[in-house]
Amino acid sequence: MSLSPETRRFIDELVASSPQAGAVGVDAVLLRSSRRERRIVGADVALVRDLAVPSPDGDVPVRLYHPAPDGPAPGCAVFFHGGGYVIGDLDTHDHVARLIAAESGAAVVSVDYRLAPEHRFPAAVEDAFTATRWVADHAAELGVAADRLAVVGDSAGGGLAAVVALLARGGGPALAAQVLIYPVTDLTGYPVTEDTPYPSRIVNGEGYFLTSEGMRWFAEQYLADPADAGDFRASPIRAADLSGAAPALVVTADFDPLRDEAEAYARALAAAGVPATTVRVNGGFHGMFGLGSLLPLGRQAEIPVVAVLRDTIGATRRSG
Questions:
Q1: Taking a C-beta distance cutoff of 8 angstroms, is the pair 61, 109 a contact?
Q2: Which of 16, 104, 153, 311 could staple 80 via S-S, CB 3.0–4.6 A?
Q3: Is 50 helix (H, G, I), strand (E, B) or coil?
Q4: Is residue 53 part of a domain?
Q5: Given a cut of 50, is residue 319 above it in pLDDT?
Q6: Residue range 99-124: average pLDDT?
Q7: Is residue 319 assigned to a domain?
Q8: How many domains does the chain have?
């Protein structure tokens, strides 16, 4: 499998127009500024409201997207954005949350968790789990069904979704699904060496938008201590026991340095008795989700995600 000329041009244009994580002189401020400039207009959603989740470390901003506030209460997807734990916010991923809500029929609560390096691990995990529990506790006020919740995330946000699904086993909330879009599942092993258990970190390590050097840099910003990479809350694949987690959909892409660790995580979930489905997008790359309006290939990542959410937590799902 090789990249199509269309995808190659798209990636080259992204790289040419964006500072790259791990490059000399590039810091979090520059990356965030660049990301905010690349806004994509999302689908119309009936109700969009900014809210705040109380926490001991200060309010966590969230944004509710409700596709049918006057209809039967749908389930809710708690969404965690990507960005290497360093960049991204409610606005950079507004189009993604809108897409999920509009096409799945489920409500979405997008979480603006604290970012590194100002707030290092485990700040993002704490905010993600706090927000998920808050959604469950305030489901009636949000107009969603408390018994139909899912966690969803892309890249770093996929890693957070995986961790929340593990933490939720200890007293809830109950989750109907975890949807992990090319997730970060293992922050160990950076910088990458030839004996990595994940060959995609080498073969896809550069030239496909996200680079392995960029991932090394993100991990360095996120972790207060390199030893924290072994903590399951940073690397969910390092959890001693994965049993009892919510059923998982794991979406991966051919030309992604994170491909192998994401698929290894899906296999580990299955080995622990957790229903886990992997969908690999042939010819796909890291960052393609949410770009379906600009690149048809992106739809191949979006369709299985919204289908699973529609079937598990969407407003039209029949119970029983």
A1: no
A2: 153
A3: strand
A4: yes
A5: no
A6: 98
A7: no
A8: 1
Quick one: pLDDT band at residue 17, thresholds 50, 70, 90? Answer: confident
CATH number of the domain where residue 227 is located: 3.40.50.1820
Strands 76-80 and 149-154: parallel
Pairing of strands 248-255, 276-285: parallel
Strand partners, 150: 77, 177
- Cα-Cα end-to-end distance for the chain: 42
Question: Which active-site residues does the annotation give?
Answer: 155, 256, 286
The answer to whether the CB of 66 falls within 8 A of the CB of 46 is yes
In a domain, 320, yes or no: no
Residue 188 · residue 237 · CB < 8 Å: no
DSSP letters, 97-138, are HHHHHHHH--EEEEE----TTTS-TTHHHHHHHHHHHHHHHT
Q: Whole-prediction pTM value?
A: 0.96
Parent domain of 71: 5-313
Q: How many Cα atoms sit within 13 Å of 254 on the Cβ side? A: 12
Residues 6+ positions from 229 with CB-CB distance below 8 Å: 186, 187, 188, 190, 219, 223, 235
pLDDT, tens only, 127-167: 999 999 999 999 999 999 999 999 999 999 999 999 999 99
- 194 vs 184: CA distance, rounded Å: 20
Secondary structure (3-state) at 263: helix
155: Cα separation from own chain's centroid: 5
Integer-rounded Cα radius of gyration of the chain: 18
Q: Tokens 């959909």 label which residue?
A: 249
In a domain, 166, yes or no: yes
Question: Which segments of 125-272 are extended strands (E)?
Answer: 149-154, 177-181, 248-255
Contact of 242 with 162, CB cutoff 8 Å: no
Mean pLDDT of the chain: 95
How far, in whole angstroms, is CA 306 from its chain's centroid? 14
